[in-house]
Write a structure and sequence with these properties.
The complex is a heterodimer of chains A (about 120) and B (about 110). Chain A is mainly beta and about 120 residues long. Chain A contains no helices and eleven strands. With about 110 residues, chain B is mainly beta. Chain B has no helices and eleven strands. In chain B, a hairpin with a 4-residue loop joins strand 7 and strand 8. The radius of gyration of chain B is 14 Å and the shape is globular. The chains are: A mainly beta (about 120), B mainly beta (about 110).
C-alpha cells in the first residue's frame, strides 16, 4: 500500500494568495483527518470526514479555511486568502476505526510558508 | 477545553537506559490512548495504543494506563540513539456513532546519548 499521499510537499506563497493542499487516503479507510502542526500550538485537528461527509470542523480556524472530500480517494484543504500566520506543516491522516478507537496513518505533510 | 499535557523536555537518557515518558489528560470520558513517534521533519507514526488500565508491552516499549489518575506513560527499555525523536501522546473519546475526538499533546523530545 502506498500510504497516505499528500501534495505538494512544499509550498511557498505570498500573503493573499489561494493555497490548495491535496490528500489521497489509504484505500479502504473511511475516516480522513486534516491537521496543522506548529511549534507553538503542536498538532491541531482542523476537520475530519467520515465516508466523505464532514463530521467536525470545529478546529478550522477561520472562514478562510475550507475542506472538501468529493470522493473516497481525494480531499482538499483550501486557504483563501492565505496569511503569514498560516505557515505550518499540514498533515492529512486516514483511519479505519476499530472497536474502541482507531489507528491514524499520517501522510508526509505539506510544509506551507506564507510570505 | 480538553487537554493533554506532556513535559516538552528535552529528556536525555544514556544509551541502554530506560526512558520514561509521561502524559496526563483532563477528559475522564477518554477511552483510548495512543503514543506516536515523530522524527524531526517527518510525520507522526503510531508506536502503541492502549485501552485498558494496566500495562501493555510490545518489544522494548511498554504503555501504562491509569484512568483513575488520568495518566498514561510510555517506557522505552534499552534506549537506542535511533529512539531520539518527539513522542506525542494522543487521547481519544468516542462521542457518538461515527464521531470521536482525538486530542494530541505537544510532545516530549527524547534524546538518547550514545
Amino acid at each position: 500500500d502506498a500510504g497516505v499521499i499528500q501534495s505538494p510537499r512544499h509550498e511557498v506563497t505570498e500573503m493573499g494568495q489561494e493555497v490548495t493542499l491535496r490528500c489521497k487516503p489509504i484505500s479502504g479507510h473511511d475516516y480522513l483527518f486534516w491537521y496543522r502542526q506548529t511549534m507553538m500550538r503542536g498538532l491541531e485537528l482542523l476537520i475530519y470526514f467520515n465516508n466523505n461527509v464532514p463530521i467536525d470542523d470545529s478546529g478550522m480556524p477561520e472562514d478562510r479555511f475550507s475542506a472538501k472530500m468529493p470522493n473516497a480517494s481525494f480531499s482538499t484543504l483550501k486557504i483563501q486568502p492565505s496569511e503569514p500566520r498560516d505557515s505550518a506543516v499540514y498533515f492529512c491522516a486516514s483511519s479505519r476505526p476499530g472497536v474502541l478507537g482507531e489507528t491514524q496513518y499520517f501522510g508526509p505533510g505539506t510544509r506551507l510558508l506564507v510570505l | 477545553q480538553k487537554e493533554v499535557e506532556q513535559n516538552s523536555g528535552p529528556l536525555s537518557v544514556p544509551e541502554g537506559a530506560i526512558a520514561s515518558l509521561n502524559c496526563t489528560y483532563s477528559d475522564r470520558g477518554s477511552q483510548s490512548f495512543f503514543w506516536y513517534r515523530q522524527y524531526s521533519g517527518k510525520s507522526p507514526e503510531l508506536i502503541m495504543f492502549i485501552y485498558s488500565n494496566g500495562d501493555k508491552e510490545d518489544g522494548r516499549f511498554t504503555a501504562q494506563l491509569n484512568k483513575a489518575s488520568q495518566y498514561v506513560s510510555l517506557l522505552i527499555r534499552d534506549s537506542q540513539p535511533s529512539d531520539s525523536a518527539t513522542y506525542l501522546c494522543a487521547v481519544n473519546r468516542i462521542t457518538g456513532a461515527g464521531s470521536y475526538q482525538l486530542t494530541f499533546g505537544k510532545g516530549t523530545k527524547l534524546s538518547v546519548i550514545p
